[in-house]
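Entry 14. Structure prediction run on the chain below.
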Amino acid sequence: MRTARGVAIGMALVMVAVTTTGVTAQRPAAIEAVVQDDKGRPVDDAVVVLIPTGTASTPGRPAAPPAVMDQVDKEFVPRVLPVNIGTAVTFPNRDNIKHHVYSFSPAKKFELPLYTGTPTSPVVFDRSGVVVLGCNIHDWMVAYVYVAPSPWFAKTAADGRARITDVPTGTYEARVWHPRMRLPTEKTVQPVTVAAADPRRLAWSLALKREWRAPRGPGRYDGQTGG
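Output returned:
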């Protein structure tokens, strides 16, 4: 005959088992992505993003810390900067000459007139989309801020690989963006179902446009260091 204490212990063990199973089932997963061009070569600076689908809500990530778009040796660094919606981006000028940063992109129009050092206020990117950056003094300086429509994204490295971590279980549309891709990003959609702790692997082959940039040369204010 079981005692009351034995019954209580048994119920507690069942509750622990159920709770543990529930936690395991909700454990976030990771997505491994590979992006190549149509000749099989790895593509770097491609942004892979997962957009939740359906009506089920998924937990969000904490607010992203401020990001940085550097200016070094008359170039933007990095070339592609993916950020969350609402991210504040600073634009330090580490050169000893002046730069004039601007964008006419619908997702974010702004201007940082001639300056050295770091502007007092960062630029907040509050709409999803691609923001093309330029310098009004150095025409070859071009970079991109990709404001992701979802907090689950990653950028490919030189080997064409990216890893998105802490992805909640659920259904998503996976898509990729690159500044030189010929197709619109909507044409790259792959449906994906993320199961608990089940790593998924995705791959894309992109046709890319030939890269062209204005040749480097002296800027109008390159002889002025500014204060």
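The chain has one domain: 29-56+64-206.
Filed with the rest of this week's runs.
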